[in-house]
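To the wet lab folks,

You asked to see what we're planning to order before we commit. Fair enough. Below is the target structure as tokens, and below that is the sequence we designed to fit it. If anything looks off to you, flag it before the synthesis order goes out.
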């Protein structure tokens, strides 16, 4: 006998549709912003990956400062760091790998590679049984993600997120893998042209609600959509604020010290807030001497600060974080 549809279940369906409409709307606005302002998108994107990596790491139980992650990205050989910061670096690198997944979905090898990259800080010993388990989990997740590419439908996308989130796979790190895959899942399921970052930051604001909702398909669809929309809305605001943040830093530089190089330098710091002289000169395609001149001007105007000694000097733009 078929269950009777109640008012409560009808209300849940209505909430589901409203939540999906709100998520679709904010995703479309961020997608459109990236298409219409590709130069801004190029500056915004690296910061969004750092923020998402820090949020996912926080959900794993480790609070990491954005500056620490930016420093690790500038110098991966930095040694005075804790395990949580190294985990954030691995998750950031896994998110970067996710941005390269094809439209039809990742292979099991690509899923496995993303997990191993995200898990590098744990130094996991991969014995034969662990290798087999990871292969099985990666093939399973690749098949789950293929459901999204086959249907390109929002409800399937959100249900696949629940399936991965609750699976307990990847040695108990299935939630991390769900969040790493989320930008691809939403891009494919909602018909976007770019991979929207920010879901983890939305979930982190009310993670208990998401956990409690994961046991029921209908409740999950509402709560996940609401939390994802909140995170994407924050990222949309971050995107829109990029020009104003650049302008505010340029305003600190006296006219006689301004140049096209200064403008390019500030934009580069928005992408990578921590640099070395070598990495900075390479990014701007200038000599080390030319880089030093630009960096000195930015130091004089308090746009950037200097950290470390003569042998490991780094230049930090906290205004860009």
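Sequence we intend to order:
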């Amino acid at each position: 006998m078929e269950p009777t549809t109640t008012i409560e279940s009808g209300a849940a369906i209505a909430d589901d549709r409203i939540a999906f409409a709100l998520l679709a709307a904010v995703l479309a606005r961020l997608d459109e912003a990236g298409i219409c302002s590709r130069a801004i998108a190029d500056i915004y994107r690296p910061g969004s990956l750092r923020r998402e990596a820090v949020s996912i790491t926080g959900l794993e139980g480790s609070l990491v400062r954005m500056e620490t992650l930016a420093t690790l990205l500038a110098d991966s050989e930095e040694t005075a760091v804790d395990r949580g910061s190294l985990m954030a670096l691995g998750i950031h690198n896994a998110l970067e790998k996710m941005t390269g997944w094809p439209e039809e979905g990742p292979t099991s090898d690509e899923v496995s590679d993303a997990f191993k990259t995200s898990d590098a800080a744990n130094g996991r010993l991969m014995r034969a049984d662990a290798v087999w388990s990871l292969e099985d989990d990666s093939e399973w997740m690749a098949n789950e993600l293929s459901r999204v590419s086959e249907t390109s439908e929002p409800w399937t996308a959100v249900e696949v997120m629940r399936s991965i989130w609750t699976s307990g796979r990847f040695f108990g790190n299935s939630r991390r893998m769900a969040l790493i895959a989320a930008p691809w899942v939403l891009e494919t399921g909602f018909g976007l042209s770019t991979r929207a970052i920010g879901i983890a930051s939305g979930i982190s604001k009310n993670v208990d609600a998401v956990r409690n909702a994961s046991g029921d398909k209908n409740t999950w669809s509402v709560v996940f959509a609401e939390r994802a929309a909140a995170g994407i809305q924050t990222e949309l605001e971050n995107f829109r604020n990029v020009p104003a943040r650049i302008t505010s830093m340029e305003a600190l530089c006296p006219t006689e010290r301004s140049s096209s190089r200064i403008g390019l330098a500030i934009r580069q710091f928005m992408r990578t807030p921590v640099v070395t002289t070598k990495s900075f000169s390479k990014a701007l395609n200038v000599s080390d001497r030319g880089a030093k001149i630009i960096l000195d001007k930015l130091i004089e105007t308090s746009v950037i600060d200097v950290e470390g000694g003569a042998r490991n000097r780094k230049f930090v733009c906290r205004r860009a974080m």
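Structural context that might help your review: Residues 166 and 215 are 8 Å apart (CA to CA). The longest strand covers residues 305-307.

Thanks,
Computational group
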